[in-house]
Design goal:
Chain A: It holds the Pfam family bHLH_ILI. The complex is a heterodimer of chains A (about 90) and B (about 160). With about 90 residues, chain A is mainly α. Chain A is built from 4 helices and no strands. Chain B is built from 6 helices and no strands. The chains are: A mainly alpha (about 90), B mainly alpha (about 160).
Amino acid sequence: MSSQRSTSSNKITDDELNGLILRLQTLLPQLDQSRHGRVSAAKVLNEICSYIRRLQNEVDGLSGRLSQCLDSMDLTGFDAEIVRDLLQQ
Amino acid sequence: MMNTPQQVKNPTSSLKSRFITRFLGALTKINAEDPISSPSPTRIFQRYRRIKVASNKSMAYSVRSRRIWSRAMLSRFRSRRSAFSGRRSSVKTTNCTTINVTINENKTAKGGLDMQTDELRELVPGGEAMDVCNLLDETAHYIKCLTTQVQVMRKIVDFCHLSK
């Protein structure tokens, strides 16, 4: 995916900005476009920030849970099975 | 027009498989280095921190240097390891800085957006040095990677409980 945007000038156009904001909106399940239509850029960014924080906290929480149950399982034993199952998603 | 993550399977699944391989390898190592017999609260806490680092590191390494955020995260890990100050080292931003001069003119015109991106810059690794375009682009990728991390870690936790 290219991160090169405007090639003709260095200024970002409104269209490009809106396109990027719109793409971020599609990542937010709570701001589903079919129901909410166009949402303000500020709101999208606000929700995006909350979403990132939530995800980072989830990684944190899951790390904690793994630290507690890790000792009770032999990872090398079913490595291959886990990988296959996870990849099937 | 960007496809939603659900439609574009191929790039995501190869990133996902790289992450899985690395992360499971890291977990195996952590598991091997820790005595199973004495899970004291201190050891569990240390293990939690190691797992968290392993998760973020595995993802950053799986993305390699193809993204500004992953490069920023990897250089942060490296500078931590070499015992220098823990502050975010500035990623190669020569390209960004020249663009920034022009972008700032646009930024002041969009005053509200500027304030909103400030918060985002703190959340996305390397965000403070990015121009708005890159920031929004990197954010989208960073979120996809975070959701992959969470998804995989959840499955591993489920397996943990199933195997008990």
